[in-house]
Amino acid sequence: MSTPDYNHTLLAMANDGIAALAASSAGSSHATKAQQSHFLCSWMAQALKDRRYAKCIADDLTQWVRLGRSVGAGAELKSLLERISHQYSAAMQAPTGLGKRLNALLSAAREADFIIYTDTPIKSKLKLDADGQSSVIICADEFTANINGDELVKPLTLYVRADEQTLAKLAYEHTLLLTLGDKKASLIKHHKAYRLYPHNLLPSLALLTSN
Question: In this structure, are residues 135 and 120 in contact, taking their beta carbons and an 8 Å threshold?
């Protein structure tokens, strides 16, 4: 029996949570954000206890339960599930053509005054002197080897220096799921490393837009 992949498990959980909230009193138009957050926090905690979903999202659920218990309405769990549902549904309906869409994203970023480099091999830590200008750098070797025509055939790393929500919106507009940024894994100073996977099948939570 095959194990559900992360995307399908996360999307199923998000849709189930939204449906459960809508069917509850906390889902009424008169409910407060605090009531909604409390309901979803309890619902996620019970889902963990019942092992309702594959283990691949257990750490996410644990984190969100802790967040809900510590900040209440500030956790905005309803908004989180809605964004997951919306963005993952769109990405999973477009599993091919990621190479073409990545090139379109880079073109859009260039038009937005980003510096774009895809022709430089990256073997060690580097520094880009750009006076803080937003930038996207992809190792030339990866860019050549991991894209075949319109398709992304192997995971690709993007080194990005930019407002993270600007990047999130660019990725969403081009139906791409990027991993969360990792500054420690970056080979470019002042940049974060983001990963793009074939078919949008990430092993962990994607970078989400704020709304």
Answer: no
For residues 72 and 23, membership in a common domain is answered with: yes
The arithmetic mean of pLDDT across residues 137-153, rounded, is 96
CA dihedral 189, 185, 106, 144 (to 10 degrees): 110
Q: Which domain holds residue 82?
A: 6-92
Q: Which of 67, 92, 117 represents a domain boundary (last residue)?
A: 92
Q: What is the pTM of this model?
A: 0.92
**How far apart are alpha carbons 80 and 85 in whole angstroms?**
9
CA–CA distance, 138 with 117 (Å, rounded to integer): 6
- How long is the chain? 211
> For residues 143 and 106, what is the distance between their CA atoms, to the nearest angstrom?
12
Name residues whose C-beta falls within 8 Å of residue 209's C-beta, 6 or more positions apart in sequence: 83, 87, 165, 168, 169, 172
